[in-house]
Amino acid sequence: MRKFNEENERVKRRYLRYIKEAKRQDIKSVDKTAAAIFRFEKTTNFKPFKSFHIDQAITFKRKLEAAKNERTGKPLSKATIDGTLRLVKAFIHWLAGQQGYKSRISYSDAEYFNNSAKDARIAHAQREVRSPTMAQAFHAFSQMPNETEIERRDKAIFAFVMLTAARDGAMASLTLKRIDLADGCVYQDARDVNTKGAKTFTTWFMPVDPAYFRCFEAWVDYLRVTKLFGNDDALFPKPMMGLGVTGGFMVAGLSRDPYANGHKICEIIKQAFSNAGLPVFTPHGFRRTLAMYGDEICTTREAFKAWSLNIGHTSVVTTVQSYMPVSTQRQKELIKGMADFSKPP
């Protein structure tokens, strides 16, 4: 089976450059697009895009529905299928306007990559984010060991999530210069912090249990005073590996470098809950925990707006829709609790 088509590769490079430079998509989005197009090419045995036919789109959809996740062996999720189809559809739509393809592909051909209405609704359905209670979070935090450098780092990571609701990718890329202990805040500058949508904003530490701040403060002081870390060194550095007495590799201290992504941050949080005998939660779940906590303690709309901005949301609507769902039963309870209709006006 063929592995690539030279003509296709050239036009793909043009398209990927277009979405990166003209459409300003980040490298992760570009990589996802490249992977989706490659997946489509494999189902056509890498035929030239100039020979595109709508039957190829229909076949591609059927093969996606039958495909399995390589890691889990389970069928692809509706969201994965929908996202893949949308990326390939956008490429074919762009291709229809390019010299040499206009006479072979029409803009309407791209519509054959549309997902079924039913599957699209399933793919885009809003799902509740699993989140710990404030009590569960504190219990898991209090059970974390705090002896070695790595243990102290891990506990500081947990504390920082509770103080800021920061995303794991942003935490992995933070350096010490973005932390202001005196003012109690972190400046998430998109120039060097991996924030969602490259958004720059300041987060002041949440009014949670003081033990979280004491833990995080001790960690920052340890890095700056004891380890002599500078402003450009990682806030949560990777371990430094060295040879042990038996000749095997072991943790020999802290490097000054950050993790490449938030995967390790996520593992640390999940392990903390698991070790405490609690359901496993991810750092993202803390965002809902803190959104709900803010709803409890904020007494005015202005206060909750500030809370929403602190999480990194420009609009309060985003906070409410993403992290504060209201069930039908709860809707009923709230509305009926507002007035007693049994009494005459």
Tell me what portion of residues adopts beta-strand conformation.
Answer: 5-15%
Label the structural class. Answer: mainly alpha
The major β-sheet equals: 3 strands, antiparallel
Shape: globular
How do the strands of the widest beta sheet line up side by side? Answer: 1-2-3
Radius of gyration: 25 Å
Helix content: 40-55%
CATH superfamily of the largest domain: Intergrase catalytic core
- Low-confidence stretches are none
Q: Tell me the total number of β-strands.
A: 5
Helix and strand sequence = HHHHHHHHEEEHEEHHHHH
Reported CATH architecture of the largest domain: Orthogonal Bundle
> Helix count?
14
Which descriptors apply to this entry?
hpI Integrase, Chain A; three-stranded antiparallel beta sheet; single chain; 345 residues; 5 strands; two-stranded antiparallel sheet; mainly alpha
Verbal overview:
With about 350 residues, the chain is mainly alpha-helical. The chain has two domains: about 5-125; about 135-285, Intergrase catalytic core (hpI Integrase, Chain A). It is built from 14 helices and five strands. The strands form two sheets. Strands 1-2-3 form a three-stranded antiparallel β-sheet. A two-stranded antiparallel sheet has the order 4-5. Helix 7 (about 150-165) crosses helix 9 (about 210-225). The model has no long low-confidence stretch (mean pLDDT about 90).
How are the elements arranged and paired?
Elements: H1 6-22, H2 27-43, H3 54-66, H4 78-95, H5 117-124, H6 134-142, H7 149-164, H8 168-173, E1 179-180, E2 185-188, E3 201-204, H9 210-226, E4 239-243, E5 249-254, H10 263-275, H11 283-297, H12 301-311, H13 316-323, H14 328-336
Antiparallel strand pairs: 1-2, 2-3, 4-5
Helix pairs in contact: 1-2, 2-4, 4-5, 6-10, 7-9, 11-12, 11-13
